[in-house]
Write a structure and sequence with these properties.
Length: 246
């Protein structure tokens, strides 16, 4: 397909301007909720009985409410006026949040995320499990030849962010060995390997994957993860006198 020159120029400008813009705003569900949930919700979460200082940080309403202390934990857009900012940066062991006894202090990076999120407006979002999936456009990458599909592009973007390049593709014997172990827990037989090495078809690898998926060894491998829980529940049933015949 031939592109008109103006369209190409427009695309180039879009990608160049994309490079110069600010980083995307933080996502509540991805960047912030895990921190709050892990370090704060035990005492400032949905459980009203365990809530300390009348502060709940799991809703925007609670986090921005005027507290008995006269403070607001979060003043959207203004980290420096937010009691939360004070508390996570405090050098006073009686003030610092989370309290030292939780034994899980925030890292520098986590404090930075919370601060940036407040300055970006402290936007809360519904728990991701209640939001319909959204389609994200695949990111732009430099090594366009390596990426065969959008999943590759997401992976490659992270590698390029870190200044890393993908490894060269492994040889056929290594590929078959890896996929066999992943799907069946077993190495390929010499016959399978020989057939794969001989197969000139462009989809030779896909054919091997299909054959492995169709193999009873695949089902056995997948059932393995269920064996332990099933053994445990049977042992419990037996020891409690139920299901003694099982
Ligand atoms: C183990 C319980 C516990 C955890 C976990 C905890 N806090 Fe607290 N928090 C308290 C208690 C108790 C107080 C009230 C005493 C005080 O002011 O120090 C408080 C007070 C606060 C206040 C001041 C509220 C006011 O009335 O001015 C803020 C802000 C705060 N916490 C933020 C946080 C943040 C942010 C986290 C997570 C990073 C967190 N807390 C984790 C127990 C906890």
């Amino acid at each position: 397909m031939k592109y008109p020159l103006t369209l190409l120029t427009a695309q180039l400008l879009v990608s160049l301007s994309g490079m110069a813009t600010e980083p995307a705003p933080l996502s509540f569900n991805k960047d912030i909720r895990p921190i709050l949930s892990d370090r704060c919700f035990a005492c400032h979460g949905p459980d009203g009985e365990k809530r300390k200082a009348g502060l709940r940080l799991d809703t925007a309403e609670g986090a921005t409410a005027l507290l008995e202390s006269g403070e607001r934990a979060i003043v959207p857009g203004k980290s420096k006026e937010s009691a939360l900012f004070e508390r996570i940066h405090s050098s006073d062991p009686k003030e610092i949040m989370p309290p030292a006894k939780l034994n899980r202090p925030l890292s520098e990076a986590e404090r930075g995320f919370l601060t940036r999120w407040i300055d970006e407006g402290a936007v809360y979002a519904k728990h991701w499990a209640f939001s319909p999936p959204e389609k994200y456009p695949a990111p732009a990458v430099k090594d366009c030849a390596w990426a065969k599909d959008d999943i590759d592009r997401f992976i490659l973007q992270k590698l390029e962010d870190q200044g890393l390049a993908p490894n060269a593709e492994a040889d056929r014997a290594a590929l078959l060995r890896r996929v066999s172990f992943v799907l069946t827990g077993l190495p390929p037989t010499p016959e399978q390997l020989a057939a794969f090495l001989r197969d000139p078809a462009p989809n030779a690898y896909e054919k091997q994957v299909d054959a492995l998926l169709a193999s009873p060894r695949y089902g056995e491998r997948m059932a393995l993860d269920w064996r332990t829980p099933m053994d445990i529940s049977r042992t419990m049933a037996v020891s409690s006198g139920r299901g003694a015949t099982g």
